[in-house]
């Protein structure tokens, strides 16, 4: 019996046809001497019927259990009146079995193969081959395939070339921690797994491949959370002889095609552009969720002369004051407001000032410190009305921005202000070129040291804090899908950047020598972007974690319960690599 159809593909056009389907027994029901089995494969579920008249097959069917693998042949018919299941794509038809073959059996399961059964992640990943049989997971990975296919088709049609770059390369420790691979032939030397193909894709531009892409595997040795894995996939794109808008245009059209093909959703292009400065002010985040309003406002100027000592003290030390209006928040109890205070305290805030807006005016123990016109300015700027709650943070800028940004998202989620059916895309642009590292007392690149400044002619170490980058991040619903930049193609400009970053000629040559040499041989203007493919798949699938769209992910403890990796290796392997393991004994 050779399969002729997938279970999930059987429809009314198959009625009166003889077909063969194969799959796993999803569930079994006995109804008045007739056995019904839901047979499952990757495309869906089909109800098959065993009738008692076919005694030999019926007897075998009585012993079928969950996750047995079977093949059946029979005629497709309409389901009898009153038995149609509108929740199944195959719910109007069923297969009456004429032949049955049991291909394999299964012992009792560690958990039920169902989308509705809660199971610990540790157990799910230990038996990942069972977990992946869940219908919802099957849909996720079919969708992932479709997204990859549409991206490749689009870029191929746009004239891009798919070119692979090495997995075994040189460690360039400027970003996250590298995974190192010891060399058997060169004891004491190590390869590094790529955090991204950044250096190689720039070299491909120098080589004349003016439109490159790769669905690239990348590796970063970092702590995990919902949107991070040790190994992940990104859509890597690089182009020559272009500017920022050219890259953004390609990405917008590519994403529009993916959403139309996979979800049948038309997304509006071009995407909104918002500067880094504005998004940090309005939303307290460089990846803002704009599906709801609640914009943050700055009151540092308006309240600089207020009688509230906390505010004046913060401003005198170079801090800022910003506020947020929580709709209908005036109903919050004091303990609920204390909960908000505790929440922003996790971001370093020392307190949360608040004012309730009622029909009789502003109410709070701090209102007495403000003039009437200052209260009016607050209400007007935040568009606050009766029933709302206004909250303020006054502290150093980083604490205020992070605290109010996180509080805005918390309120949006907790009070159902976010429309989950929306897909709000935007670009964050005009990023700072550099940021100051307090610990090391030096400038460091905000993105990477090959990002081009917007105005290279006036860039100096003294005005580095005002320099803007030719960089851009694409954001969807508060998630950064990807980021990119126009690269430096001039050796003189690159040397100027390294000088400001306090990277010596010797250090630059040691870390990036092969790229710098390549750039000296007629490098064209170029730029690109890298999109987080796993994040994109998770968003389209409606999943909160990328682990739900990665076939074999690691746990948050960075282990794989299925294969028990990482694991010790034999002394023989270590000897071949010239490696010894030094283990410190824990003190009693």
Description:
With 588 residues, this protein is α+β, with helices and mostly antiparallel strands. The chain folds into 3 domains: 98 residues, Nucleic acid-binding proteins (OB fold (Dihydrolipoamide Acetyltransferase, E2P)); 217 residues, BirA Bifunctional Protein, domain 2 (2-Layer Sandwich), CATH 3.30.930.10; 127 residues, 2-Layer Sandwich (Gyrase A, domain 2). It is 28% helix and 24% strand. It contains 15 helices and 22 strands. Strands 6-9-10-22-21-20-17-11 form an 8-stranded mixed beta sheet, with helices on both faces. Helix 4 crosses helix 6 and helix 4 crosses helix 14. The protein is globular and about 90 Å long. The mean pLDDT is 93.
What are the main properties of this structure?
588 residues, alpha+beta, BirA Bifunctional Protein, domain 2, Gyrase A, domain 2, 3 domains, 8-stranded mixed β-sheet, 15 helices, 28% helix
Task: Please sum up the structure shown.
By secondary structure, the protein is of the alpha+beta class. 28% of the residues lie in helices and 24% in strands.
